[in-house]
Structures
1.
Amino acid sequence: MTIAASPRAQAGHTAPGVHATARIRATSSGNATILPVLAGDGPFDLRRNRSYGTEARVCITGAMSAPLGGDRLRIEATAEQGAHLHITTAAATIALRGPTPEHATYDVRLTVAEQASLHWLPQPLISTARSNLRQSCTIDLAPTARLVLREEQVLGRAGEPPGRLSTRLTVRHDGHPLLDQQTRYGPDAPGWNGPAILAGHRAVGQILIVDPAFGSEPPAVRLLGDDPADGQAVLTPLAGPALLVTALAPDSLRLRRLLEAAYPTA
């Protein structure tokens, strides 16, 4: 009987930590969007899904458990001029402890050119007990670019505390800062579970929409959710052609419902 080696062993990683990058590039071609670059290694397996109109669609599936302590993971996606790109993941990303207490990194870099659009809609990130992850997302948008981004974090699986999780979202529009926020949860993050931040909830998420149309017609502020114990969401316009929906909930299911109620097209 032959036993296949794990993907980490096949990759020759005897020491803790995998270094891997996925690259996606979308280009406009007539009335369609093509993908001249679709490459992933390590835990990233990129699948080309059926296109929707002029939009190319990609699903990222996991080829191994990641991120673990010591891993260095990166995704780079570019929608060139006039291209339309939709990216999702097949399952939740689970941050695990791994063989070393060293933190893991998961960096996402998105670039959207003139008259292009990008939907970045991954499944939730789950921070498990004793994990240590630093996640960042950096986005550069041209003046006429459009973006739909959804982020969701679940702090601990059922019955367990979360690990250490820090996230940073940095968005530049036409070369100028549009949004720059950083959050920390779990051990060593003062007050993360207190009334000023999560108030006992374990699921947090947001939707960011950037669209030139918001420059002349910004959306109105809205509060969703009647009972704070069941979670609430707030929709606010940003100082630019953008809106931000932020939500808190006891679990991922109610979090997604709040986000979809605030902005269903995401």
2.
Amino acid sequence: MPGTRPTLRDVADAAGVAVSTASRALTRPGRITEDTAARVRAAAEELGYVPSASGRALSSGRTGTVALVLPDVTNPFFFGIVRGVQSRLRVDGYTHVLVDTEESVPAEERALRMIRSSADGAILAAPRLEDSTLARWARDMPLVTINRPVDGDGIVLDTPGGAVQALEHLASLGHRRVAYASGPRTSWSDRHRRAALRPAARRLGVELVVLGPYAPQREAGAAAADAACGAGVTGVLAFNDLLAFGILDRLTARGLDVPGDLSVVGCDDVFGADLVRPGLTTVAAPLERAGQRAADLLLARIDRPRRLDGRAGDDGIPPTVDLLPTHLVVRGTTGPARPAP
């Protein structure tokens, strides 16, 4: 009938197969012959048949939906990750729902409880949960983390290595007392950057002053800038670009020159890092690639059922930390250290 939406039975009749066979052809084609599957697909295309989400869920046990959980959806650091996840999921016909936990650990766990039954899996970017809690959730549902490995498994951006590159850059410019404006206490990446910077500072003959913690937001930059000025440093490494932007704002308000009076380095190379004046020296990370790799790994986990006693990696995919390299982008906010008074 004109205007009537074709059903799975219509597809089955057109292909000359049973309804159950048509369903398998469209959801689990590996369980029937390729000739039959091709015939069913052709009939579905000719009729304009589009399976409903609820129908797919009932027939395959899957929703075709993945949750992408972020600590702060307004942070441009996550834009590239979202694009990467989205582009990879689209290839396999998946979509994602975006969850913003607003830097709240309880909100992050509440989100996982809510999506456990409504999504096929989850990608957590820079999660703030404790290691043991994350490991429990990884046993309970297909889950991949970015910038926070779980049981030796996940996608990790080498920002600690990038922070060391930034410190080496400042040391080469004659800086001997440098501050690190740290990020949230719950940040795995922040802890590992501090751990990498301390021995690097000793090797380079640089005195490292750790400031903070600070919220990874522009508004927190004023306090970080004031603390850096009070610490008598000539350079400051900021946890992320947003914090660095706020530091630059405050230094300008105080009438200080960058990089003449104080050199500033950010992290992430987000949109706008090259637009501020002077342009921000920062650590660039392959964010879109990280999102694609995380989605790729999650889809593989979804397609391989986990054992009942499964730990991360017991779904047939060996646990591994996929370490993505970072690099320093030198712009105008770093220069030679100011002369000693």
3.
Amino acid sequence: MQSSPYDQPYRGGFVGKQHRFALTVFFEDTDTAGIVYYANYLKFMERARSDMLRAAGIDQRAAKEDGTGVYAVAEVGIKYVRPAKLGDDLLVLSTVQLVRAASVVIHQRVMRGSELLADARVTAAFLDHRDRPKRQPREWVEKFNAISED
């Protein structure tokens, strides 16, 4: 069986220091009113953050497997502005706002065209194998600083 571009998963990418991740609202994302269930915005943002790390050259899977550490969301502040609906094409915009020794703060916005739907700030802590905060690898901090808004 021959491989085609359609066999590959969707990948977002950077435009300048901003990571862009596109998605479509499916039936499973909505409630009975056809509006995106509020917790699903967190899923959309998680996919976008994971893809942003991949695009920045950070291999979370290898870090987990070799015992380097893992990221876990420590805090989320989110404001829901407008509802997304079944069939909407959305874009999650992610930018690194702050890099600390053992965490990173990422600003994420869910957009429908030029319309802001949700605005969030997510703090991801870097943890060791005992789930305790740990300094991020130096090369990762450098990668985050290179794409940081500052």
